[in-house]
Amino acid sequence: MDHALFTQLLESNRDRVYNQALYCLRDPEDAQDVTQEAFVKLWRNYENIAPDKAAGWLMRVNHNLCIDLIRRRQSQRKNFGYPDPDVLERLPDVESGNRIEETLRLDQQQRTLLNAMDTLPPETRSVMMMHYFQEMKLQEIAEVVGKTVSALKVQIHRARKSLRLVLTATSEPGLGIKRETG
Amino acid sequence: MNGCQKIELELAAYCSGELDPAGMDMVRRHLAGCALCREELGRELEIRGILGTLPEHEFPEDLEHRIKAAALRPVASIPPARHRRRMTAVLVLAAASLAVALLVPALDPVSGPDQSWTEEEIAAARQEVMFTLALTAKVIDRTQKNTMVDVFADKLPHAIDESFKMVKPKTPGGNG
After folding, report:
1. Cβ within 8 Å, pair A86-B56
2. Closest approach of chain B CAs to the CA of A15, in angstroms?
3. d(CA B45, CA B28)
4. Which end of chain A is more exposed for a tag (fewer CB within 10 A), N or C?
């Protein structure tokens, strides 16, 4: 792999890798460190990676780095996004109270769900982010994490059940995330 | 496994359109007659809707250069990020001064380095300067003393890029 190819891979995968790490770790500095480590590993292992496999390889390394880091800091979870400094920037630039309310409500729902996901095993959280946020197919994720599609279906099913229990225990009915509070 | 359990397992694949036509039809028919599985489908769609609309955060501006600077370092000499952040301000400023002193002769293709240096020594020195400078800027930035970053803002990314182009990674058994 030469400089140009590496730069190309960096530019085409950096947002995906960084955001995956950010939402798994929920800490911007940790996400930057993990992203950096993933790309440096890519550069140092270029001889073993076909360029067309680099994107999947990066996601696998990123997934493993995130899991390792979460396990290391299990006892000191951080609450990225509370308060989320970006939420004000995402508010619609209109004088519509309803749209602003919608944006704030969505932000609250996202935060509630992400907090509940912190109770899931790190690998499950990462798989869910790949499927629901990155919109990766189960087959793609299976290749990244080295599992069968059937195993992933069971994992996601169990996660859905766990989230329901967690959110019920925290006074959210059902998944309850979209409950009207007004 | 009963019919409902089987369907519940398939809901994620059903919603993302990953089942074959027969599978899609099987789930659809079951859902039409099963209120409990429709509830479960509602939860699946709720998760999908909420996580699918999470905002994508911008890639940090300086991270690309930090990645390239880190890639230039020999494997054994990359300190953990946490340790780098613990450098004191005094060390940072000393490193910055040293980097500035070395930067001009090491990077200037016209004046060139000391002729008594070997090419390997020059390459190693250039890498060291690049890394020290990148490290310095990063740490100063993190301590919010932005003066030095401002000074290097134009020069550092270009210097790292140029240095990066000239260096191939060394891997065990590789030929560079």
Report:
1. no
2. 6
3. 15
4. C
Predicted TM-score of the model (pTM)? 0.67
What is the model's pLDDT at position B113?
Answer: 47
Reported ipTM: the value is: 0.80
CB contacts, 8 Å: A127 with chain B: none
Integer Cα distance of B107 and B122 in angstroms: 10
pLDDT at A122 over 70: yes
Residue B97: pLDDT band (50, 70, 90) is: low
**Which residue, B48, B63, B55, is CA-closest to A84?**
B55
Per the prediction, chain A carries an average pLDDT of 83
Q: What is the pLDDT of residues B37-91, one digit of tens each?
A: 999 999 999 999 999 999 999 999 889 989 988 887 766 555 544 444 444 444 5
Task: Note the pLDDT of residue B102.
Answer: 56
Please give the residue of chain B at the shortest CA–CA distance from A87: B55
Residue among B12, B71, B168 whose CB faces A40 most closely: B71
Contact indicator for A62, A35 with CB cutoff of 8 Å? yes
Residues of A in contact with B42 (CB under 8 A): 175
Contacts of A78 (CB under 8 A, 6+ apart): A26, A27
Q: Between A32, A47, A138, which is nearest B13 by CB?
A: A138
Six token digits for residue A133: 């946020």
CB B64 to CB A10 under 8 A?
yes
User: What single letter denotes the amino acid at residue A7?
Assistant: T
- What's the Rg (C-alpha) of chain A? 18
- Do the Cβ atoms of A44 and B169 come within 8 Å? yes
CB contact under 8 A, A18 and B63: yes
Alpha carbon A97 to chain centroid, angstroms: 30
Nearest-CA residue of chain B relative to A162? B43
Q: What is the DSSP string of B28-48?
A: HHHHHH-HHHHHHHHHHHHHH
